[in-house]
Every structure is written in C-alpha cells, then in structure tokens.
Amino acid sequence: MACRCREPLAVRGYSIIEVLGAATIFIVGLAGLTQGLATLRTADARADRLAIMSQIALTWVDRTARADPGTPLFSAVCDGGGACDVVEGAARRSCSVDETGEPVSEGGFVVTWHVIPDVPRAGVRRIDFQVVDANGLSSPFVVQTHVR
Questions:
Q1: CA-CA 20 to 30 A from 145: which of 20, 80, 117, 125?
Q2: pLDDT by residue (tens digit) across 45-80?
Q3: Which residues contact 110 (CB under 8 A, 6 or more apart)?
Q4: How many Cα atoms within 13 Å fall on the side-chain side of residue 115?
Q5: Which residues share a beta bridge with 86?
Q6: Is residue 119 over pLDDT 90?
C-alpha cells in the first residue's frame, strides 16, 4: 500500500496571510515614495519661483542704481499720480511685472517699493523692494538698497 504523506513546506508555496502581509508592506512603501516625490516637486516649483523673484528684485535694484537721482519713479516724494501713496513718511509704489521684471498690465509678480528719504543719512535714500508672487505660490522676497 502506498503512503499518502504531506508535501514538504518548500513545495507548498506561501500562505494567503504571507502574501497579504507582503502586499501591504509594498503598498505602504509605494505610497510613501509617491508622497515624497510630490513633496519634492512642490519644493522645486517654490524654489524656481523664489529664484525668479530674486532676479526680479535684483533687476529693480540695478534700475535704481542706473537711474538719475531726480527720477520720479524712485523719488521719496509722490508726484500726485495714482501709482504712489505715502506710508509712514515713505513713498510707496508698485507695479505688475513679468518673469523678466519688465512692467506689464497684468503679470505673475508684483513689485512694491518704499522710498525712505535720509536713511541711513541725509542725502541718501533707502529703497525697500518686495516682490510678491501674484499666484501666492511663494513667500514675498525682500531686498534693500541705498542710493543717493
């Protein structure tokens, strides 16, 4: 008479519990990897916007340095135009700009600058530039410069 014996464990394969456990671990790892990649993509987009905003601010600082001292755009006095108002003794102006810093009617960024006279000393104007992402994707970027 032939003996009916159980097959050895190595031949039987994996149980359903083992397969479900392995699948769960794999899915959790895959979800974590996906979340990490999404976070990296968001951080990369914000870094790109910040780089553009810093370049816009530097473009405006360069314009200030090259402008004549009497240029109304960088004057500490409002000339009565609608694009200027006085805030705490400083002239504040703003305009929409594109990614190169050139003024446009509606751009992806807004440059605001405050011209503060006689700071840090008489005859010198401090100009604070603030670049804001019009889409709200990044924090404002601020830079200061001093001109005569």
A1: 80
A2: 888 988 999 999 999 888 888 887 777 788 777 765
A3: 94, 95, 96, 97, 131, 132, 134
A4: 25
A5: 91
A6: no
